[in-house]
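Go through the following before class.
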Amino acid sequence: MKTTYKIILVFSLIILSILSYKVSSKKIKSDINLPEPKLNFNFYNDIEYKNNSLKLDIYQPKVPRKGKSPVVVYIHGGAWDKGDKTMIRKNFREYILQELLENHFTVISINYTLLNKETHLEKPLQDTKDALKWIQENAEKYNLDTKNMGIWGGSAGAHIALLTAYNQDITKNNSELIYPNLKYVVDFYGPTDLNELFKTEANTLLLDFFKVYSPTRFKTRQEKITQLTGFDINTNKAEVVKKSAEFSPISYISKSTVPTLIFHGTEDTVVNYAQSQQLEEALKKNKIPHQLHTVENAKHTFGNITLNEAKDVSKKTVDFIKSHTTYED
């Protein structure tokens, strides 16, 4: 039995090596430093929205349109344990920010509690809701149209954005909304099925292959599972699977799901392109307005897309947002 196991292991490693060679031999564009766009905006930064000093930044057009300003909330990425609200000013994201400002949107970028061994996904999800509540309570001060509001995120931020948009709590207090009603969500290469992403139900043999072939990624997988769910998959697999399903946006799609815009690159080795394809299928099945834009040869975070591609992505993003915005007169 042990001999058979070893033969299978060696054979699998050979196959993986061949596949790895094919992937590595494919020409993938190098990262590109895009020129910074010229931004013109009013900036309110480091505004505390929660007692534990979590802060947000507000970007508003220098010349506002007549009436209140529709709002886009940005949730940064960083594998759930890194990054901050300033990431909106980096890479292609700054072009989307520019396009939104030029179309008279207010953009609010928030910080949230980052994960560690003691802090799990419930915390940043609640932080995001609390930021939305703050925006609702301060709408008059900043001339915000919270009836026309959506959420946008990248990678881990897209995952949080999707979960927030697909699980909205718009309860009322004295006939006033506690949380604004999000009208759409914009998802850049976000995880949609955590059990599939982390292969939580893979058999021991396959996991042994993974551990030998890619020990660093195997270790990262273990750490991320614990950070997100609060459980060790080696000792609490059932709880991990349950929590991972609970934290998977694809679990919540129904006939009432908000319109969804998806971008994903074909060379993403962090979050497989299939995650977005599965999301698209679920949205299609429930007849939810949606778009999936595939960016050929783009890596995770779109660090290697060209200036023309960045502008195209920006235009498609803002066109989608405008199509789901009802402007006040």
Remarks:
- Residues 13-25 have pLDDT under 50 and may be disordered.
- The first helix runs from residue 2 to 25.
